[in-house]
Amino acid sequence: MKKSIAIDMDGVLADVEAHFITWYEKEYGERFSKNDLKGKTEENAFPKKGMVKKFASTKGFFSTVPVMDGAVEAIKELQKNYEVYIVSAAMEFPQSLVEKRSWLSEHFPFIHWKNIIFCGDKSVIGTDIMIDDHLKNLDYFNGETIMFTAFHNIDFDNHTRANNWREVLKILKSLEKF
Amino acid sequence: MKKSIAIDMDGVLADVEAHFITWYEKEYGERFSKNDLKGKTEENAFPKKGMVKKFASTKGFFSTVPVMDGAVEAIKELQKNYEVYIVSAAMEFPQSLVEKRSWLSEHFPFIHWKNIIFCGDKSVIGTDIMIDDHLKNLDYFNGETIMFTAFHNIDFDNHTRANNWREVLKILKSLEKF
């Protein structure tokens, strides 16, 4: 049987970081780089606090987020050897449910609806592997974990880090050897 | 730590069977009883085939479904001793996502968004217990299973059967004794 992987959307399949920067500039006229955000929390990412949560609650945010570099090719590659599930904590923002579902159909039409999970917390997800950017999800997971680099997790080393999708594939290949 | 339970929506929290009957009568003028449907498949529940799937794809169906008798009180009771998750296979019908989320907020406002999961198949749900009406979900589940009676599962005995929410509570109490 194929091993199963739970793959996060925001910050992993979807480049929300770039999108936050674009939306912040649009709203406040100030442009930040990804480097500027490094080591900050989501709450304090920008001078105006709580913007990450505000944008995430705004209609149109999730439907227009850019795809993370290399994600489409990597998911296609992973589907050859793994049962790939997309697991997104969408429940906090109800308006995001339909936007996230449409976004996946648009950019990842090769992912079957049976393999999509929108949840609140991820503690009951029982896949073999989890790829996520949030410690709150990875720390309570029982299987193998890969932490996808995001500005808010730079200072942590609780999990195997992948800086991009190329590194994810490399890590998974090395895990297969054991 | 509290044991966790995955509880299905359609046919368990929500009386979709009653709703199908109401919608069928509204559409075709023919009234069926729950007894008439017993032992039938979802596909062949009514003389006009495929109606269950048609209704489930129609806007407004899930937002207006009646609550299953005794479900509200039972969930409140279960929350005292279990970590209760609502797990619904909503992904096949994207329009149902928002309707189901609103329906839960309306009828079960005491369920936190962190405890709601909308998925495709349920094979990666890792709770201790699952309450569901569908064999396709229960058969592949690793923990304890309770099959909530529905017209389409009358002829199966693969799982401990509960005919109503009172019986669910009784079964769970008896499990606790061991």
Automatic annotation (TrEMBL), chains A, B:
Active site: 8 (nucleophile), 10 (proton donor)
Pfam families hit by this protein: NT5C (PF06941)
GO molecular-function terms, A-Z: 5'-nucleotidase activity
Stretch forming the signal peptide: none
InterPro entries referenced in this protein's UniProt entry, alphabetically: 5'(3')-deoxyribonucleotidase, HAD-like_sf, HAD_sf
A Gene Ontology biological process term: pyrimidine deoxyribonucleotide catabolic process
PANTHER family in alphabetical order: 5'(3')-DEOXYRIBONUCLEOTIDASE (PTHR16504:SF4)
Family label: Belongs to the 5'(3')-deoxyribonucleotidase family.
Protein name in UniProt: 5'(3')-deoxyribonucleotidase
Lineage: Bacteria, Pseudomonadati, Bacteroidota, Flavobacteriia, Flavobacteriales
